[in-house]
Amino acid sequence: MASNRTKDKKKKESPEQLKQEKEEQINVKELVKDERTHKIAGIALFIVSLVLFIAFTSYLFTWKEDQDKVLRHGAGVLFDEEVAVSNLLGRFGAWVSHLFFYKGFGVSSYLICSFFFIIGTNFLFGKKVFSMARNLKYVLVGLLVLPVFFSFFMKGFGFPWGGAFGNYSASWLNGFVGTAGTGLILSLAAVSYLIWRFNPVFKLPARKPKEIIVDPLPEEIAERVAIDVNEKFAIEEQAKNQLKKESSFTPVPLTEEKENPLHSFIINEKEEDVAPLTPLPFAEQPQTESSVEMTIPYADKPKKAAKIDEEEIGPALEIKNVTDDEDEDDDDETPVKKVVENLPPYDPFLDLKDYKFPSLNLLENHGSEKIVQDPHELESYKNQIISTLRNYDIEIQKIFATVGPTVTLYEIVPAAGVRISRIKNLEDDIALSLAALGIRIIAPIPGKGTIGIEVPNVKKTVVSMKTLLSSEKFQHNNFGLPIAIGKKIDNENFIVDLTTMPHLLMAGATGQGKSVGLNAILVSLLYKKHPSQLKFVLIDPKKVELSLYRHIENHFLAKLPGEEESIITDTKKVINTLNALCIEMDNRYDLLKEAGCRNLREYNEKFVARKLNPQKGHQYLPFIVLVIDEFADLIMTAGKEVEMPIARLAQLARAVGIHLIIATQRPSVNIITGTIKANFPARIAFKVSSKVDSRTILDTGGAEQLIGKGDMLISYNGELTRLQCAFVDTPEVDDIVSFISKQRGYPQPFLLPEYVDEKELEGKDFDLSDRDALFEDAARLIVQNQVGSTSLLQRRMKLGYNRAGRLMDQLEAAGIVGPSQGSKARDVLIKTESELNQHLEMMG
Ligand SMILES: Nc1ncnc2c1ncn2[C@@H]1O[C@H](COP(=O)(O)OP(=O)(O)OP(=O)(O)O)[C@@H](O)[C@H]1O
């Protein structure tokens, strides 16, 4: 019944009437929402603010003349044409400023016109240029405090400084706490207001440092400071965001720029890290002393040392001259020893003292580095993620977004009670529902209770090598071999020390950015290292990728003696080179052992301080970086012959400054074997074709979800980090290489020790009558030192590896030393020289 009645009632109403009402309602709503209305309102408010400002300012000068008239007529002054006032805005101006100044708040009334200005600006520009709530607070508190302050302190000046409100409050306060109390309270209130409003910086004048600190921070501390600062920033940002957010998952409207936590979270300290684009100052490198400076210390030294040619100030020459007959261990303070001690430190740069490091101008900016954040994209993915998870009954507490160069990380805090393993299990379904290529789910993000969903950006940003190399972290670090790899999702530059990695394995399907990645690493090193500090051994079975670098062979490359090409492409030669590197490693170990040093850095420091005698084979040892561009080809053709020396180098070479970078297109288990993997803790995966490949390289899936073009995952220090690899184009590499190659280099590439295949030597029976002319000398040396090492023969007798090796074989055949024991020295079977003499006599 009742429903029938309503129906009837509705019927009775004429349809046009209904329609009209409805339309009107909608129109008003739309009108209010219309952005044109906002603009008009904005301009109107601007004008109000301007009118008030003019009236107030004019009042400051005309108040005396106009005050009586306004007081006498009250609001009537507005319409009384006979009253003539002096305010610039006429009777209205005089009245309105009288109202605000005299009857209201005095000079603090300007706060009101500032407030109109703020609302007007926000309306006009259609967004929150200024925060309304915050400014409203400032105005209200200002109107409460300042008039009282002015009334109290400016009493007796005639002008209504604090207006009626100020006068009344000040006199009340005066009665309440007395003059002194009022003065103190008001001063405190006014100062507090100013601090709250403007937060001025109070700084004591900086004291001048007493002495200039020259030493850079120790490596670990410098690193830690950098990390702490970054962490602090991130934590502060996050805390701010948390505060701003509502308790539900709604992460604050994404369309508001100023106060949007997603945005402020996103805009990381990106720019902070960029140092001015000046040619790199190589702070950590040993200083190149000018030839003039070098000559001064010699001026009052004994004649012999003073004569040394500036060009050749190297330990080999100097010590040779002065230590001819001296035993280094002699404790006596001989004049000669004094000279050595007083020599300036050895400077490895002096070999090529005019060498100029490549300037950053050789690199290009690839597009704008500004990360493009599309609020609509962020909002829509956020909603999609929330609704997708809700389909699986997963409720979310909060969601944050961090926009990186290629992907955006949505970090989710699941509601209480949601098990992370459930989300992990639903990984594929969620990825499918989100239906974007390359979604990676990290459940949970290590070290946090949150879940990460990485979604590729529609518009990706290229990370230029130039940006990374000009960053503070790259320019001012204390790394042995700094390499700039790329940018993390939070836009932090990923710059690491290859010496701590200590080797690097790279894999990725063809065309996904491997070669660019290799170039980025090589270029980083070329920008930071002097030719005396670094040598590359480049192996490139594909014969294309690394050939660019052949022009710098006399500066930065190493090769086998007698070889024509410095870039090794032939498998047989690769095997020889790898074995030669093993010998170099063993030789270096011997040197380090003799010098009592644990690693290359200590050894070189000792050598630079001239604590090691070059006569005993000591020399400044450059880092050696072995780069293999296509490892799969090598393993396929040479198998164990390649794998064994690589495994040996990977296990042992770190301490002696030999580091390996191995790249492959095919990360299958027969190529990246267990032995290789175990010795390469740092690994990079560009996009690979399957989850199995990803597992082979990273021990986990994810690399198959990458989006190519330098998008990569790096497993380093037990952490998996997604990076956008720095981009350096071939023409840029060309320019750098030709810049270096045009400069004076060494006469030839750095020579690796000679390696002779043992198989070739085998079978050649040793005939005692055919023994080497140096056989006896070698036997004495070995017996005197009681060390059966080929490198000892090489160094002390200045022999090539071949001859020293042959001599050692002869000594073995003669029963003086035992059989080879790999990298360990052979046993010496004869203990004293007299025993040796007898033995040699018997041999005839
Ligand atoms: N970091 C990067 N930023 C932007 N684009 C990149 C990046 N790395 C690679 N690319 C793009 O991808 C292309 C292929 O890269 P690259 O030559 O390094 O692949 P690859 O994996 O070495 O391939 P292949 O194994 O066939 O040599 C480049 O020419 C470039 O256009």
TrEMBL record:
Q: What Gene3D superfamilies does UniProt report for this protein, alphabetically? A: 3.30.980.40, P-loop containing nucleotide triphosphate hydrolases (3.40.50.300), Winged helix-like DNA-binding domain superfamily/Winged helix DNA-binding domain (1.10.10.10)
Q: Which residues bind ATP?
A: G508, A509, T510, G511, Q512, G513, K514, S515
Q: Which SUPFAM superfamilies match?
A: P-loop containing nucleoside triphosphate hydrolases, Winged helix' DNA-binding domain
Q: Which GO terms describe its biological process?
A: cell division; chromosome segregation
Q: Note the superkingdom of the native organism.
A: Bacteria
Q: How does it sit in the membrane?
A: Multi-pass membrane protein
Q: Which InterPro entries match?
A: FtsK/SpoIIIE/SftA (IPR050206), FtsK_4TM (IPR025199), FtsK_alpha (IPR041027), FtsK_dom (IPR002543), Ftsk_gamma (IPR018541), P-loop_NTPase (IPR027417), WH-like_DNA-bd_sf (IPR036388), WH_DNA-bd_sf (IPR036390)
Q: Where in this chain does the record put each FtsK domain?
A: 491-695
Pfam families attached to this UniProt entry: FtsK_4TM, FtsK_alpha, FtsK_gamma, FtsK_SpoIIIE
Keyword terms, alphabetized: ATP-binding, Cell cycle, Cell division, Cell membrane, Chromosome partition, DNA-binding, Membrane, Nucleotide-binding, Transmembrane, Transmembrane helix
* Protein name per the record: DNA translocase FtsK 4TM domain-containing protein
